[in-house]
Amino acid sequence: MAVAADVAQQPQALLERSLEKLRIAGCMGELGAPQRQALALAFYRGMVHTEIAEALGAPLGTVKAWVRRGLDKLKVCLEAAGIA
Amino acid sequence: MNYLSPERLERLAREYALGTLAGPARRRFERVLRKAPAAVRAVGAWQERLSGLAGAVPSMRPSESVWRRLEERLFVSARAVPRGPFQWLWGVLSVRALVGALAGVLLCVALLRFQPGLIGLETESDVLPQSYVGLLTDVEGKPTVLASSKRHGRLMTVKLLQPVAIPAGSVAQLWALPKDGSAAFPVGVVPGSGTGTVALADTSEALFFNVSRLAVSIEAAPAKAGDKPSGDFVLSGHCVKLW
To answer: Half-sphere exposure of B129 toward its Cβ, with a 13 Å CA cutoff?
Structure first.
């Protein structure tokens, strides 16, 4: 019985996606806790700097630095992992 | 400011993609995006990097109410979706509809107040309506015919206060006599007894404005416009304005 091929469901593609997720999770894990938290609030909650500062009870300048450094590290890590 | 220096572009693009570039700065960068392909590429690269983060979130189905509120905020047309049993009422009660209804009410009030006759209503009042009235007496001075018509009406009501002897084959012709002494003109035929109505050629105002007397003669046939009485009047009386 023939089954229509679904590229996204092929074992190779599934493995790639799983590995990618692991690498991203790994990169996020490499960030410091405040940086990870600041990025998470921006990305998952759609918050801007002032809202993050309020949510975390941190000065605005500090939050901006967390976000900046967090993005710096994320980029380096993802590039090293061959994702971006 | 040169937005396209690699370092500044990188900083703006990633904050834009993350969503932390807000307010006027975001709007300024959006203008740059419309003109500079390099900026679009930089933002695209960061959106791709960050899209990996979305995969770490377990998918959730929002509740129906959350979904509806989202649609209402994102798409104006979704606001048309009924929200309650009385939602249709707010559609009906738009400002334009209210203004239209108000104009209709005002028109009705004005019509009832100033032209009640137009819709078949007369103002109820203790005062008699504006009318022309004639009381015709016979040669002995006995009241015989009461003729009346409303000022702007086209019907005359004729009431016989006592029977009038009309020879067979003849009619009792009512005439109007202008006060300037000019020739009498025919108004209509009155019955021999009881009450009847006479259709007027024009409104009472037009016909009787200058008429001082009404009279009845016996004619062989109903008189036409331009005819003159063929004999003496058997009844006559004053025509007066009742206002």
So the answer is: 14
